[in-house]
Amino acid sequence: MTEQLRELYQQVILDHNRNPRNFHELEHATKKVDGYNPLCGDHYTIYVEIDGNTIKDIGFTGNGCAISKASASVMSATLKGSTIAEARQLFDVFHKLVTGEPGSLSTAELGRLAAFSGVSEFPARVKCASLPWHTLNSAIEGDKETVSTE
Ligand code: ZN
Description:
By secondary structure, the chain is an alpha+beta fold. The protein has one domain: Sufe protein. Chain: A. The protein contains five helices and four strands, in the order αβββααααβ. The protein has a four-stranded mixed sheet, with helices on one face. Helix 1 packs across helix 2. The two termini are about 30 Å apart. About 35% of the residues are buried. The site of zinc ion has 8 residues, from helix 2.
């Protein structure tokens, strides 16, 4: 990890863990999915309000480690208002990022998502970071009501 990425990592994880965005239930959720990571004890419920092809709103509740909470917070802030197609694309981008695969977006294009590339250095933490995304993906695809990383 470069010095710049290390700083971004600490800054984003601390900020979003202390002050998570969209940390609440959604009154008008069209779908909610529970996500568990038994390895770490992370457990979140992700709420989405989907209108046509757009994710109108995202909220989440639950608890877990700093990385999982920050990941859920950044994800909700990033994807709120985006289309389903954009969400699918970012899901793929994020997955590559945390598993250390080279992606197509530059650090500048990734913005605060880039912070999570640091997670690829800690294999045990990859599931923490990706849990909220897997859970949201399931809410969008509408195939499950519970997601587990195991
Ligand atoms: Zn965790």
